[in-house]
Amino acid sequence: SRRPIIAIDGPAGAGKSTVARRVAQTLDLLYLDSGAMYRAITWLVLQRGIDPQDEVAVAEVIPDCEIRLAAGEPGTPFPSRIWINDQEVTRAIRSPAVTQHVSTVAAQPMVRQRLLQQQQVHGVHGGIVMEGRDIGTQVFPQAELKIFLTASVQERARRRQRDLAAQQHPPVSLEDLAQAIDERDRKDSTRRVAPLQQADDAIELCTDGLTIDDVVAKIVHLYHQSL
Ligand code: C5P
């Protein structure tokens, strides 16, 4: 039999990574960041000078790309370490260029098909918290607990600005960040395959004005209730 699965989905910058990692630590579950996998493919596409919109060229990259993930070791600076074709890209996948193009690459059916399989393999035995956009709807529709994490665009832009500063990126205005977040959400929720969408049985949690501790405590409580 498999252990429980927690699916955490939601728009960009809602705090999914931080919250999912902390929930996993608290409940002693594995933590996996599915967005990191889409980012790794996007990094490879850009590195090879391929136009992210060119579906045929992007599809050609898929067969010979191998993504390896270290499932959330507690206390590491990033959610989890990640390699593509044996090159570590843990830090590189957070670059503004990757962030800008990832939704375009993630909208392509070949890319999604490939990553869906790999993500489902990680859940075979359960005992995992996975976060992304389509975990509750596509990857693990049978998850014991589904959370749809949201926050206002202003709040998400402020958080993104703090994240970028912490990673020593050049400053970006709140307005530009809010616009970029909106644009990514629009692409993610309007794509044909596996759009960002709240599952019917997901619990929506708006994190405006809540601390990380508050949000983690709520999810841990819901988890115990759901068993
Ligand atoms: O969560 P993160 O911001 O790292 O995700 C980056 C991008 O990867 C998202 O904007 C989305 O385009 C894509 N993604 C996805 N499905 C997931 C996780 C991420 O399409 N399950």
Molecular structure report:
Residues 6-225 form the Cytidylate kinase domain. Catalyzes the condensation of pantoate with beta-alanine in an ATP-dependent reaction via a pantoyl-adenylate intermediate. Catalyzes the transfer of a phosphate group from ATP to either CMP or dCMP to form CDP or dCDP and ADP, respectively. By secondary structure, the chain is an alpha/beta fold. Helices cover 48% and strands 15% of the residues. The protein is built from nine helices and eight strands. It has helices spanning 16-27, 34-47, 55-61, 96-106, 109-122, 135-139, 153-166, 174-190, 212-226; strands at 5-9, 30-33, 67-70, 81-84, 87-88, 128-132, 145-150, 203-206. The strands form two sheets. A five-stranded parallel β-sheet has the order 2-6-1-7-8. A three-stranded antiparallel β-sheet has the order 3-4-5, with helices on one face. The chain is globular, with a radius of gyration of 17 Å. The model has no long low-confidence stretch (mean pLDDT 93). Bound molecules: cytidine-5'-monophosphate.
Short characterization:
The protein is 48% helix and 15% strand.
Ligands bound to this protein structure: cytidine-5'-monophosphate
The ordered string of helix (H) and strand (E) elements is EHEHHEEEHHEHEHHEH
Unreliable stretches: none
Number of strands: 8
Global structural class: alpha/beta
Overall residue-averaged pLDDT value? 93
Please tag this protein with its features.
227 residues, alpha/beta, 5-stranded parallel β-sheet, 3-stranded antiparallel β-sheet, 9 helices, 15% strand, binds cytidine-5'-monophosphate
